[in-house]
Amino acid sequence: MREIKSAAMIVNAKSRKGQELFEHACAAMKGLPFPVDAHAVRDPKDLDATMDAALARKPDLMILGGGDGTVSGLVDKLVSTDVALAVLPLGTANSFARTLGVPLDIDGAIGVIAGGHFKRIDLGMIDDDYFANGAAIGIAPQIAERIPHDLKKYLGRAGYLGWAAWEFLRFKPFTLIVGEGPTERRIAAVEVRISNGPYHGGTEVNDQASVDNGVIVVQAVTGHVKRRLVKNWAASLLRLDARHETTQEIIGTSLRIRTEPPLPISIDGEVLATTPVTARVAAGIIEVMVPAPEVIA
């Protein structure tokens, strides 16, 4: 059984509530049986350097506080180390925390850390870039790429949704090509989700994706008209079986992905790549803290 003697915590404190959440987390962690070297990072450009400095002190556990983008942006640095990962879900969607079953409040998430239960999981990869939860092609990266700086910060979720509606009017369906040569599949698509976990945007959309099944799942929302995407998201939000009527899944350990035209890819919310790419799974590559399994009497 893994023993934790020391931990480091890095919190993305860029948001308006970032410092307050950091202080809350520090106070809640005083009850843990090991010291926590805590860092609040207000400029995201400093996250990498802060992570490197924290890892140089050789902690047993790295606690990452932020959204899915923060976790995905830093998780590469834990690969090939013996440092385990714990997540403090401080983002908007918190898809990775939902996938792990981590409570979305600070006290609940720290309770998972105190519980001391570990699980070895997969990471996804887009070319050589590891990601925790999922990548997307379609409207999501278009929104992320074009949204005005600080709109979400100052107007919150309402500002983001307003901009998303505007981008939806300008968005166009595309062609997804998976594989190469005679076995390639061509699919008319309005959205593509490259999934290591079942959640995208905080909503469970992909029943076949899991962080411990050793595969990557490419899910296409199919069709030539944008209302198919609206139908799929509505059905997913309501957990209706109709969500399966508009999707196709391709499953494998390594999948070559192209689009016509070439399109940007958002990786856990950050636009970091452009098609064509290779999506892969890195099976069982890191260890994370998760809630202890329920004991059935």
Q: Would you give an account of this structure?
A:
The chain is built from eight helices and 17 strands. The chain is 28% helix and 35% strand. By secondary structure, it is α+β, with helices and mostly antiparallel strands.
Quick recap of the structure?
The chain is an alpha+beta fold and 297 residues long. It has eight helices and 17 strands.
Question: Layout of SSEs?
Answer:
Blueprint: E1 7-12, H1 18-28, E2 36-41, H2 47-56, E3 61-66, H3 68-75, E4 84-89, H4 95-100, H5 106-115, E5 118-126, E6 129-131, E7 134-138, H6 139-146, H7 151-170, E8 174-178, E9 185-195, E10 199-200, E11 203-204, E12 216-222, H8 227-237, E13 247-252, E14 254-260, E15 264-267, E16 270-274, E17 277-289
Helix pairs in contact: 6-7
Please supply descriptive tags for the structure shown above:
single chain, 8 helices, eleven-stranded antiparallel beta sheet, 297 residues, alpha+beta
Low-confidence stretches: none
Using the alpha-carbon principal axes, give the shape. Answer: globular
> Tell me about the biggest sheet?
11 strands, antiparallel
Terminal residue distance: 24 Å
Order of helices and strands: EHEHEHEHHEEEHHEEEEEHEEEEE
Q: What's the tally of helices?
A: 8
